[in-house]
Specification:
Blueprint lengths: L4 E4 L5 H18 L8 H9 L5 E10 L2 E11 L6 E8 L8 H15 L4 E9 L8 H8 L3 E12 H4 L3 H9 L6 E6 L4 H17 L14 H13 L2 E9 L5 E10 L2 E12 L8 H16 L5 E7 L3 H9 L3 E12 L2
Parallel strand pairs: 4-5, 10-11
Antiparallel strand pairs: 1-2, 2-3, 3-4, 5-12, 6-11, 6-12, 7-8, 8-9, 9-10
Helix pairs in contact: 6-9
Length: 338
């Protein structure tokens, strides 16, 4: 077994960043049924642009042959300042050699040094796997993590399902009288900016989180505008559909992102219908329109991926109608630091 040395990646060292990215690309392609690792140009542009509400620490595990594992530590500075979010990946042929353990020890030490009380990560389990014997879950459980939430990762084939969208939209419209759907790409219109900030701020308080220690985030209009510019600078293109209630406020929204360099695949970011507006099939109306707008504005997209808590029966039913199929399970694993 080779000695493992963990080093922080210097943002000024492009070669080191590319080696870090390359390990992630290889591990993601091996582990994930629906691999969404960003293209190098997209990732690099995003890493170079500072984020005013969070910091990232990127670590690489080195042995004599080079980088064999990577970890990222996301430290929120505006909301959820008790939490450190960790992503850890090791080359498939180097697992079991100590790189994962060395990286996890390093990110936990960094989290403690930043006064974080909780560490949150995720583990992907294939559909045909025995969850209890899945190596990545066993690794987490043996190091003091507990499963805090379960999500189903789903994918919809747009080419195979688009013939049914018109009928679904008509079905949803029957109960959505008085509501209007609006759509935008990349930047929110000024007339909806305050309202979309209000919805973003309510999102984490309205969705099922299980035991995950996440609190609602506070979104200002300034935070939205800064985020929009950062997304565009890093090659991330947003499509958002919102429902305008009869009183002119926004009742809900759904959005996704298309990444430069990976144009065939889009990923749902979030979907919310406020409790006071539920019962009008707005969830179905929003998601159908999102599919339609994505095909119209980004015709290169052929599939959309999303993740939903297994207990979110309402959204799971909407996704079933849209032809989403479960491809794997994602487990939120969480540890309370001593």
């Amino acid at each position: 077994m080779s000695d493992i040395e963990v080093r922080e990646v210097d943002l000024a060292d492009e070669a080191a960043l590319h080696a870090w990215w390359d390990v992630g690309r290889t591990a993601s392609a091996h582990d994930d049924v629906d691999d969404f690792w960003p293209a190098w140009e997209t990732a690099y542009a995003g890493w170079l642009r500072p984020d005013p509400v969070r910091r990232f620490v990127r670590l690489g595990a080195h042995d004599g042959s080079g980088v064999v594992g990577i970890a990222s530590l996301q430290l929120e500075d505006a909301d959820n300042t008790h939490l450190a979010i960790v992503k850890l990946m090791v080359l498939p042929d180097r697992r079991g050699g100590g790189a994962g353990s060395a990286l996890l020890s390093a990110v936990e030490a960094a989290a403690r040094a930043d006064a974080r009380s909780h560490v949150l990560s995720s583990v992907t389990v294939p559909l045909d796997a025995d969850e209890q014997s899945e190596p990545s879950l066993t690794f987490a459980l043996h190091r003091g993590y507990a499963v805090a939430g379960t999500e189903e990762v789903k994918v919809a084939d747009l080419l195979a399902t688009e013939d049914g969208w018109a009928d679904l939209a008509a079905t949803a419209a029957e109960k959505a009288a008085g509501y209007e759907l609006v759509c935008w790409t990349d930047r929110a219109p000024e007339e909806h900016l305050d309202e979309i900030a209000r919805l973003y701020s309510r999102f984490l308080g309205e969705i099922p989180l299980g035991d995950v220690a996440l609190n609602p985030a506070s979104w200002s209009t300034e935070r939205i505008r800064e985020s929009e510019e950062r997304w565009l600078a890093s090659g991330r293109h947003q499509v958002l559909v919102a429902a305008v209630a009869p009183d002119g406020t926004l009742a809900g929204y759904t959005n996704l992102f298309v990444l430069d360099g990976r144009p065939e695949r889009a990923g749902i970011d979030s979907t919310l219908v406020l409790p006071e507006h539920r019962g009008h099939r707005l969830g179905l109306a929003l998601k159908v329109r999102l599919h339609q707008e994505t095909r119209a504005r980004h015709p290169e997209v052929t599939r959309i991926a999303t993740g939903n808590a297994d207990v979110n029966t309402w959204m799971n039913a909407v996704n079933d109608q849209l032809g989403y199929r479960v491809v794997e399970t994602s487990l939120d694993v969480q540890k309370v630091l001593s």
